[in-house]
């Protein structure tokens, strides 16, 4: 795993910890609180597992999509929860798309190479 991918997983780990903590820092509706702490725990777990098994990072992609939708869909007591969860969802989403070195190298090998075209001679 290259440093960029490992760094992305570590940041997702930290964001998951914050997501969990934020569920208890200010008032949330019951649905938002439950959703926030569970998604925080899952973000941490998926980030840790993705450090060893890179395809698991896509579980954080799915989780981030749900976090973003739920930020607006679930009943809330204040807008801080919406902003916190929506912004975290966006960052987690993009970080979860950072490929490992092996995945990036595999993608590079599968890209077609174009032979330089020579001008036609008359």
Q: What would a concise description of this structure say?
A:
75% of the residues lie in helices and 0% in strands. The chain contains five helices and no strands.
Question: Which SSEs are present, and which pair or pack?
Answer:
Layout: H1 3-25, H2 30-52, H3 57-73, H4 79-96, H5 101-110
Helix pairs in contact: 1-2, 1-4, 2-3, 2-4, 3-4
Describe this structure as you would to a colleague.
The chain is mainly alpha-helical. It is built from 5 helices and no strands. The longest helix has 23 residues.
Q: Which tags fit this structure?
A:
122 residues
The helical percent reads: over 70%
Number of helices: 5
Class by alpha and beta content: mainly alpha
Give the domain tally.
Answer: 1
- Write the element-wise H/E pattern from the N-terminal end onward: HHHHH
Number of strands: 0
Give a short account of the largest sheet.
none
Approximate strand percentage: under 5%
Compute the separation of the termini in Å.
52 Å
| Poorly predicted parts | none
Quick one: overall form? elongated
What would the average pLDDT be, to the nearest integer?
A: 88
Rg, Cα atoms, Å: 19 Å
């Amino acid at each position: 795993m290259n440093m960029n991918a490992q760094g992305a997983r570590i940041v997702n780990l930290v964001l998951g910890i914050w997501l969990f903590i934020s569920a208890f820092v200010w008032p949330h509706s019951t649905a938002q609180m439950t959703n926030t702490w569970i998604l925080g725990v899952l973000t941490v777990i998926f980030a840790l597992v993705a450090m060893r098994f890179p395809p698991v990072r896509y579980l954080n992609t799915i989780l981030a999509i749900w976090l973003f939708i739920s930020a607006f869909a679930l009943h809330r007591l204040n807008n801080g929860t919406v902003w916190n969860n929506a912004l975290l969802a966006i960052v987690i989403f993009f970080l979860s798309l950072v490929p490992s070195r092996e995945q990036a190298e595999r993608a590079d090998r599968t890209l077609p190479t174009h032979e330089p075209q020579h001008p036609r001679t008359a």
